[in-house]
Specification:
- By secondary structure, this protein is mainly alpha-helical.
- It has nine helices and four strands, in the order ααααααββββααα.
- Helix content is 46%, strand content 5%.
- The radius of gyration is 31 Å and the shape is flat.
- It starts with 33 loop residues before the first helix and ends with a helix.
């Protein structure tokens, strides 16, 4: 009886032409490759930098207008004082530059310019100026501290914002810092817009309201919510105030957008894009 040779391998060789290669990660295995992940990260960082830059530009345009609104006028423009014929003309009121200079002196030293005032300082404007000024200073110092840079020198709001904008590329490698910069400049730009009387942006959303079946769904990016603006809409949720308060509108927060898209026939991607609070939409208004 013939016994098998112990040195003969018992494993079977692959058939001729077959290649016994391991699956490549990211292709055959279905797992994302490191290259794809790096590309997505770089794309997200570039989008965040672009959005933060646009919010900073919006704040740079609007903050000087807020200072002008804060500086009270010395004579009401709606009631000009008549000058008798032949009488010497009264001196003109302070220019815009003079009002801004008076405001800076009052903020820095507590000095109040002499003369009568007809327009009182509006507290909501004053609070907005103080909040934005403090917020920009804190953001400038936080960015320098996070990037291990020397403490920033004192500067006006515009100078500090430009300095932060110049550091966005260096902050791209820190996701937490970049998100913080974008969120803070967006918050302050929103505060400035509201103080100046700007309307809240509204974006129309496709699909029909699950409660009233009307095409009245609107996204409010500043609130990160979708509302039905139909005054006659009433939902079946007993805890919702739209059943008892005519001024209240049923709202879907971000966590309910998937259910809303399924019930209204809207595209979830379009819904998320409509509710995204970006500076591109604000700058185009």
């Amino acid at each position: 009886m013939t016994t098998p040779n112990a040195s003969t391998p018992t494993t079977r060789e692959p058939a001729t032409g077959a290649r016994a290669t391991a699956p490549k990660p990211g292709r055959d295995s279905g797992a994302p490759s490191a290259t794809d992940t790096d590309t997505d990260t770089a794309r997200a960082a570039a989008a965040a930098i672009a959005d933060a830059t646009l919010w900073i530009e919006l704040l740079l345009r609007q903050f000087p207008e807020l200072l002008v609104e804060l500086a009270p006028s010395y004579r009401s423009p709606s009631a000009p004082r008549a000058t008798p014929s032949g009488a010497p003309s009264a001196p003109a009121g302070p220019t815009r530059a003079e009002r801004e200079e008076a405001l800076r002196a009052e903020q820095a030293h507590g000095l109040t310019p002499s003369g009568s005032r007809t327009s009182p300082v509006r507290l909501h404007i004053s609070d907005a100026v103080r909040d934005i000024t403090d917020g920009v200073i804190e953001l400038d110092e936080a960015v320098h501290d996070r990037l291990r840079l020397p403490r920033p020198r004192r500067e006006q709001v515009a100078g500090r914002l430009l300095r932060v904008a110049g550091l966005l590329d260096r902050a791209a490698g820190d996701d937490v810092l970049l998100e913080h910069i974008r969120d803070e400049v967006r918050r302050m730009a929103r505060r400035c817009t509201r103080a100046l009387g700007g309307a809240e942006p509204v974006v129309r959303v496709s699909g029909r309201c699950p409660w009233c079946d009307s095409v009245s769904l609107r996204a409010f990016p500043a609130r990160r919510a979708v509302l039905c603006v139909n005054p006659a809409c009433r939902c079946t949720d007993r805890a919702c105030d739209c059943r008892t308060d005519p001024a209240h509108r049923h709202a879907w927060s971000e966590g309910a957008w998937v259910r809303l898209a399924a019930a209204s026939g809207a595209d979830p991607a379009e819904l998320a894009a409509s509710a995204a609070d970006t500076a591109r939409r604000e700058g185009g208004r």
